[in-house]
Design goal:
Blueprint lengths: L2 H28 L1 H5 L1 H4 L8 E6 L2 E7 L2 H9 L17 E5 L10 E3 L15 E3 L6 E3 L22
Antiparallel strand pairs: 1-2, 2-3, 4-5, 5-6
């Protein structure tokens, strides 16, 4: 390969690299509209599903509430410290902050009954704070027997 052809090839590769970096940069800044619109940001969460997502550099648990979850929320109310805390069951989307009181430790979602919750209490899936042992339902409301001063998971305030 001759020197002028090699130089042209190298220039073309650098141009492709610069265009690729510019594309990634522009693509990341154009995603701001989706971050500002929670409906778009959480569109991929199916009804009845709870999923971990990132919104504005914050890890959040998102539950798309359907009729079954609304009925389950009513069934477990007697076991909750404050049934009016957390997300309102009539809202279509519940977004809860995943951060616990201890830095670097996230609240986890589990379908399995946590060992600190007595077996006579109805469990339909929810959250456990590993730093305190508190147990929450899928709407972020704390169970009575595990409460240590909090009444609900922190609701994520989307701006």
């Amino acid at each position: 390969m001759s020197r002028p052809v090699l130089i042209t090839l190298i220039k073309a590769m650098f141009l492709i690299l610069i265009v690729s970096v510019a594309f990634v940069l522009l693509r990341s800044t154009s995603g701001v509209s989706a971050i500002n619109n929670p409906k778009q940001l959480f569109d991929d969460v199916a009804y009845g599903q709870t999923a971990l997502r990132r919104a504005q550099q914050t890890r959040v648990w998102v539950t798309r509430i359907n009729q079954v979850l609304r009925q389950q929320a009513a069934e477990i109310e007697p076991h909750l410290l404050d049934p009016t805390s957390g997300c309102d069951p009539v809202t279509p989307l519940c977004v809860l902050a995943a951060a616990s009181a201890r830095s670097g430790i996230d609240i986890i979602y589990t379908e399995q009954r946590p060992p600190q919750l007595p077996s006579e209490i109805l469990w339909l899936g929810g959250f456990v704070d590993p730093s305190s042992g508190e147990v929450f339902d899928r709407l972020g409301r704390v169970y009575k027997r595990t409460a240590k001063g909090r009444t609900a998971m922190a609701l994520y305030k989307h701006q």
